[in-house]
Each structure stands twice: as C-alpha cells, then as structure tokens.
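re: ur question from earlier - yeah i can do the single chain one, its not a big deal. heres the input i used so u can compare w yours
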Amino acid sequence: MTKQEALFKYLLRLGDNALIQGHRLSEWCSKAPVLEEDLALTNMALDNIGRAQAFLKYAGEVENKGRNEDDLAYKRAERQFYNNLITELPIGNFAYTMAKQLLLSSFEYFLFTDLCQSTDETVAGISAKSLKEVRYHLTHSRDWCFRLGKGTDVSHEKLQNSVNELWMFTGELFEMCQEDEVLMQDGIVFSLSGIQQQWLDLVNSVLQEANISTPNVDYMQTGSRRGIHTEYLGHLLSEMQYLQRAYPDAIW
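and the output i got, formated as tokens:
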C-alpha cells in the first residue's frame, strides 16, 4: 500500500464516521424530547456533516481521480464505506443516542487531540476545528448521561441497557490496520492503542458518576475496516443517496 492509498483510505474512514453519525443525529430533527434538544442534536448533526465534507473533499484531492466530496458521499456502495459500525446503528431512544454519543465523542476527543499534531497540515487543520466541536458534543452527552443515570428508575434502566448494548461495538474504534501503519511512519497519524486507556478512564468516570455499571464484554463486533457492515448501513444509504442515484449529475 502506497502512502497515497493509505491516506485516501484513512480520510475516508474519518469522513465516513462523521457522515453516517451526522445522518443518524439528523433523524432526531423534530423528534427530540424538548425543543432545545431538537436544536442541539440538529446542530451536532451539522457539525458532523461539515467535518465529513472537509475530510471527504481532501480524500478526493488525495485520490486525484476527479471525485469530489459529493461523489464520495453519494456514489459509493455499502462495501466501499469504512465508518465504524457503532455510527450506523439506529438512533433508538433518547438514552441510547446519548450513550452512543458519549462513547463516540470521548473517542473523538482523544483522536483529534492527537491528529492536531499531524505532520499533514490539512489533517491537522480539520482536526483542530473538529476538536472544538467535539468538546461540546462530549460535554452535552456527558451531562445528559448524568441526568438520565441519576433520574428516575426508568431513565436509569434505559441508559444502562443502552450502554450494555453498545459496548460490544467499542473495541473496533481502536483497531489498527495497514493504512495506519503506513501513515504512522511519517507522523501523519498516531497509534490508536495509545488513547484506548485514556478513553476507557474517561468513559468509566462518567458512567460511575451517572450510577451506571461498565459492561464486562469479551466479544467485540468488527468488520468496518474491510467494508463489512451491519444490516442497517444499506438501508441508511438507500435513503441518503436516493436523489443522487435517481437523478445522476443533476444540478440546480
């Protein structure tokens, strides 16, 4: 694998994670429990979609085959996406979304903190902007986990069940593959194993304060690094890509 190929696939990973999570968060528009939360989740979705646009645009430039961010978002098939499996899971109830956001934002906080030091100036620049947004996403989901975990018996049960269901998808966040090894040689990216304990410590501290037990799970779901996904991604893409596929190359 060449450095160009490695960087292209790594950028797809970052862009796809943001794109798919952004799409899932957008599904809360007009459905959140209160108006303020409706606005908050919609803004978080827009943050993710903006990040996806930046990373996918750069991926198209690195690939140098005439594809732009729209082509990469709307004209790839399911097996050509590399987002983590956790991002494509349905939104579930509100506690489920907050638990998922806590797990993802905690990971992204440490990931983008590292990538701000990337020797690739574009990666470092996008990461610095993303880090500002991720800090808010982390604070927002953390505070809601406190409220839900310490709230009623029902809210506590829903949050605990959500964490239990999502935990098997967290191991994949830290998987390293060939493109990581290639890019690490030039300081473009950094070892994910280096932030795994930091992530675990942060998540454990939040869950403990929220009176939520950390699950003890031996088996972890995997596959996204090879383009293998849950049954949910295909349905998501069929909705997200419908207009572009129905009217190829349409312009306003």
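The CA atoms of residues 4 and 73 lie 20 Å apart. not sure if urs matches, ping me
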